[in-house]
Design goal:
The complex is a heterodimer. In chain A, helix 2 runs antiparallel to helix 3 (77-110). Chain A has 2 domains: 23-112 and 124-155, no CATH class; 163-316, Cupredoxins -  blue copper proteins (Immunoglobulin-like), CATH 2.60.40.420. By secondary structure, chain A is α+β, with helices and mostly antiparallel strands. In chain A, the strands form 2 sheets. In chain A, strands 3-2-1-5-8 form a 5-stranded mixed beta sheet, with no helix packed on it. Chain A has a 5-stranded mixed beta sheet with strand order 4-10-9-6-7. Chain A contains 9 helices and 10 strands. Chain A is elongated, with a radius of gyration of 31 Å. Mean pLDDT of chain A is 90; it is low at 336-349. Chain B is an all-alpha fold. Chain B has one domain (51-598): Cytochrome C Oxidase, Chain A (Up-down Bundle), CATH 1.20.210. Chain B has 19 helices and 2 strands. Chain B has helices at residues 2-19, 24-39, 43-48, 53-83, 90-96, 107-143, 151-171, 201-230, 243-274, 298-331, 339-353, 368-380, 382-396, 405-427, 430-436, 440-470, 476-494, 497-502, 522-552, and strands spanning 285-286, 289-290. Chain B has a two-stranded antiparallel ribbon. Chain B is globular, with a radius of gyration of 25 Å. The termini of chain B are far apart. Classes of the chains: A alpha+beta, B mainly alpha. At the A-B interface, helix 1, helix 2, helix 3, helix 4 and strand 7 of A face helix 6, strand 1, helix 11, helix 12 and helix 13 of B.
């Protein structure tokens, strides 16, 4: 019913508009086209000026309304650089925006058709054109300079002391793997992926670096003020690890691993205080179209202190032991292990 | 069959004219051949399989308008979902059945809608509808030719486009739905039917349709280029051509050089989909199934796609720029400021368009050094763009401006081009792009600078050349309403989207209520949806005005209603096939002698006077 009313109102409004438009055309013919044209010309010139003024007020109003909602303080060290670059660009482009829009609409208003004025024959002026070639070129050089300086800082090698976490996207969720005590992610091969036998990542158990790797889904823990290097991959289609609060983003491509690194500045608890949102979470959003669940592909990062992190990690069991319970030294005491000697040997290596 | 013979004959004559430096005699003879042909024209040869470039232009335009309504309607549908997530609209279920179960747009349907919206608007409306229409219509008329270099290929160009349209439309009606991986169709998503129902038959149809579209575009483009290079009338040197023609020329060059790369990329995709090859596929476990493919690169497709994809942006934008230059000059009664600079910047944009594609790929794991080169080249484009803007502003300065609907849309184009161009400086800078990539900021940016701005250019062109196309005027009051609602609406829709992007909201999220970080803008999303419905309704009003005016509009009595210098206004009120009744006029000057020596305008056909000042 509501839909019907909306359609009816739109139809009626259209009919009225059309009749007025037709009538104005007849009136124009009757009163003389020249005069009618001059009148609409004045109206439109005025509207252009009004659009400029109301538009600029609107831009200001929009900014006042929405500026509080755009994330606030960057939560990573790289985020600081990215925000700085953003504000430099906003300042420079903002100036250009106001000058050119004002000129466009002001000229349109000021030089509306008038009998008193003749258009000025002004085909070119090389000096002027040189000026507005050189000034944008210089401005852009500045922007490129800053941009690349930050870009290389952000995309440069991760610090030696950074922790490593593997992030893998799949339809529609996230998997994580921590390298364990040895700090090395064990080798994996996609044809070994076998969730039924507790090997969702396709780890190669013969690689001993795998024996202490910890696997988990949906939730990742990081340590505050400790650089982290993410090794990113995907199982099925391209995904993207989007970390809005950290201002970081990197595609997850099946077959081609990618990396990014950053240092979280605030723990999740600190962010709850800063944002005033009791349910605040660092969210991982998939930023690359990946299928019908794309919009709901959410992961969570919990940033905490080193002690909290260590306590959390201590509870985790390496996936190797989940997949091969017979190799678990703790399990050995419970049940009679089949090959206790082998298990002990691997543990010792 | 008569007409196809006639077409070849005309082509040969046209060609020989070009070679023989176009003597007057050749024109007369040529004209005779044409009027001879006219008597035998049937309805089919005149309106359907026509080889008259003007009719073909109208065919492109009307097909484009129909596609624009379809594409626009899709956007209204998915805006409903974005503005009112979780709310039921029973009418949707009535029309779309299971796609909108319970009156709610299902995710598969949502993604099909956005994919088709993008494909349709980018390719079918703003490529075929825009340059197909105006290149066909304006090139022969403005350079003084009787028709295209090959009217027959020109006709084929339209009918390949028509076929592409039929295939694309048919994909909307299959049970697994049309392609739904986004208009960029990145594999592996688009390569694997297991990954998405839209990647089943719908994706094959999408590829076939695009292949036909590329053929259409190449036939058209080669024709535009050879016509401009060979069939200019006597005196029409390259630097006397109106900027519209230059813009359409560069557009055609871009299309001819880049569309084949897209086609090759799509063919490899077709192979991966159907023949078991691994160009783009490697290390894939989809839905628990381990695929055999190894060694392919998913990123390779993105390189191939964006090698067209970025020039495509300029394929869409350049014709609008050209028409805006012309319309602003005519209606401010002043020459375009800095013709050579405008030309140079068009050229620079064309070259740079080929060298910036990887700025769409800063976060794909691209080598940072390579990224830095693309940052530099991308931001370089801002220089010719800035020159163009300043030159348009100076064209308006001290003019005597007539605000026809076309002028207003041209001014609107400049405003939108400034706004959207400046946000390009954010995204072209890889550092900022890390944060803004694939967010609503990108959506806002490219809709303003490429979508809406080019649409404005197209509207300006339609309002301006409608009298020449149909011998009647469009109703200008409806035109003014159309402009003001669209102008205000476009800013209301897209300006606040930048803030959503700055807040990190990713593109293509159909419901943000499950997120802590992205759920801050429900009221804004509602506002945008309401405005887009109003703007869409006003576009329907434009369509009505367009078709109504074809049959019932006020008749044109003045052959040169805008007081313009260019050649199309020297043709009869309703030019037949062949354009000029007598000889093709000779050109003596550039197209922009407005307000010179105290005269309002001096048509290109007027010889240089003895005491005329030089510029």
């Amino acid at each position: 019913m509501q839909t019907f009313f909306i359609v009816a109102i739109l139809g009626l409004g259209f009919l009225i508009t059309f009749q007025i438009a037709k009538a104005s055309e007849y009136v124009a013919v009757l009163r003389g086209e020249e005069r009618a044209r001059k009148q609409t010309n004045k109206v439109n010139a005025f509207m252009l000026l009004a659009f400029l003024i109301i538009g600029l007020i609107g831009v200001y109003y929009c900014n006042e309304q929405l500026k509080g909602k755009i994330l606030g303080e960057p939560a990573s060290d790289h985020g600081i650089l990215i925000d700085r670059m953003l504000y430099i660009t906003i300042a420079l482009t903002g100036i250009v925006f106001v000058i050119t829009q004002v000129a466009l609409f002001w000229f349109s208003y000021k030089y509306q058709e008038s009998d008193k004025r003749k258009a000025f024959y002004y085909p070119h002026n090389n000096k002027l054109e040189l000026i507005w070639t050189v000034i944008p070129a210089i401005t852009l050089t500045i922007l490129v300079g800053f941009g690349l300086f930050y870009w290389f800082k952000i995309t440069g090698d991760a610090p030696k002391n950074s922790m490593v976490v593997e992030v893998v996207g799949k339809q529609f969720g996230w998997e994580f793997r921590y390298p364990g005590k040895d700090g090395i992610l064990g080798k994996k091969y996609f044809k070994k992926v076998d969730p039924a036998n507790n090997n969702p990542a396709g780890q190669l158990w013969e690689d001993e670096a795998n024996h202490d790797d910890v696997f988990m889904e949906q939730e990742m823990h990081l340590v505050v003020n400790k650089p982290v290097k993410l090794v990113i991959g995907a199982k099925d289609v391209i995904h993207d690890v989007g970390l809005a609060h950290f201002r970081m983003k990197m595609d997850a491509v099946p077959g081609t691993p990618t990396t990014m690194w950053f240092t979280p500045r605030f723990t999740t608890k600190e962010m709850i205080e800063k944002t005033g949102k009791p349910n605040f979470a660092y969210e991982i959003s998939c930023d690359q179209m990946c299928g019908q669940g794309h919009w709901s592909m959410r992961g969570v990062i919990i940033v905490e202190t080193q002690e909290e992190f260590d306590a959390w990690m201590a509870q985790k069991k390496p996936q190797y032991l989940v997949a091969n319970p017979d190799k678990d030294p703790k399990a050995k005491t419970d049940t009679a292990a089949k090959a206790p000697v082998a298990a002990v040997m691997t543990e010792n290596k | 069959m008569k007409s196809s013979f006639h077409g070849t004959e005309a082509k040969q004559k046209n060609m020989s004219e070009a070679i023989n430096v176009q003597s007057g005699a050749a024109h007369v003879e040529h004209h005779d051949a044409h009027s001879h042909g006219h008597h035998k024209e049937t309805f089919v040869s005149k309106y359907i399989f026509s080889m008259d470039h003007k009719t073909i232009a109208k065919q492109f335009l009307i097909t484009g308008i129909i596609w624009a309504i379809v594409g626009g309607l899709f956007s209204v549908l998915f805006r409903l979902q974005l503005g009112y997530p979780g709310q039921s609209f029973p009418i949707l279920e009535t029309f779309f059945g299971n796609w909108a179960k319970g009156g709610q747009i299902q995710p598969e349907f949502y993604y099909a809608l956005i994919t088709m919206h993008g494909t349709v608007l980018v390719f079918f409306v703003l490529t075929a509808g825009l340059s197909g229409t105006f290149a066909n219509f304006l090139i022969p008329l403005q350079i003084g030719a009787r028709d295209m270099a090959s009217p027959f290929l020109n006709m084929l160009s339209y009918w390949f486009f028509f076929l592409a349209s039929v295939v694309m439309i048919s994909s909307l009606f299959i049970s697994t739905g049309p392609a739904s991986g986004g208009w960029t169709v990145y594999p592996p998503l688009s390569a694997l039917g297991q990954a998405s129902s839209g990647s089943k038959l719908g994706m094959d149809l999408w590829i076939v349709s695009m292949a036909l579209f590329v053929v259409s575009s190449l036939l058209g483009g080669l024709n535009y280029i050879s016509t401009i290079l060979n069939l200019r009338t006597k005196g029409m040197s390259m630097t006397r051509m109106p900027l519209t023609i230059w813009a359409l020329f560069f557009t055609a060059v871009l299309g001819v050089l880049s569309f084949p790369v897209l086609l090759s990329g799509l063919i490899l995709l077709l192979f991966d989909r159907n023949l078991g090859t691994s160009f783009y596929l490697s290390d894939i476990v989809v839905n628990g199934e381990i695929l055999a493919n190894e060694g392919g690169s998913a990123i390779l497709f993105q390189h191939l796609f964006w090698f067209l994809g970025h020039p495509e942006v300029y394929i869409i934008l350049l014709p609008a720029m050209g028409m805006v230059s012309e319309i602003l000059s005519v209606n401010s009664r002043k020459p375009i400021f800095g013709y050579m600079a405008m030309l140079g910047s068009l050229f620079a944009i064309t070259i740079l368009a080929f060298l910036v594609w990887a700025h769409h790929m800063f976060v794909t794991g691209l080598n940072p050094f390579l990224g830095s080169i693309f940052v530099l080249l991308t931001l370089l484009i801002a220089v010719p763009s800035a020159i163009k803007v300043f030159n348009w502003l100076t064209t308006l300065w001290r003019g005597n401006i007539r605000f026809t609907p076309a002028t207003l849309f041209a001014i609107g184009f400049v405003s939108l081009f400034i706004s959207g161009g400046l946000t390009g400086i954010f995204l072209g800078n890889s550092t900022i792009d890390i944060h803004l990539h694939d967010t609503m900021f990108v959506v806002a940016h490219f809709h303003i600078v490429m979508g809406v701005a080019s649409m404005f250019g197209m509207f300006a062109g339609i309002y301006h050349w409608f009298p020449k196309m149909f011998g009647r005027y469009m109703n200008s009051t409806l035109g003014y309403i159309h402009f003001w609602v669209t102008m205000i609406g476009s800013y209301l829709i897209f300006w606040p989207m930048h803030y959503q992007g700055l807040a990190g909201i990713p593109r293509r999220y159909l419901d943000k209520r499950g997120w802590v970080s992205f759920n801050d803008f429900p009221e804004l999303d509602k506002m945008i949806t309401i405005v887009s419905i109003i703007v869409f309704a006003v576009q329907l009003m434009f369509v009505f005005n367009f078709f109504y005016s074809i049959f019932k509009g006020r008749k044109v009595t003045n052959p040169n209603p805008w007081g313009a210098n260019t050649l199309e206004w020297t043709t009869p009120l309703r030019p037949g096939h062949g354009n000029w009744d007598g000889e093709i006029p000779e050109v003596h000057r550039w197209a922009y002698d407005y307000a010179k020596d105290g005269r309002d305008f001096i048509p290109q056909t007027e010889p240089i006077g003895e005491n005329e000042s030089k510029h």
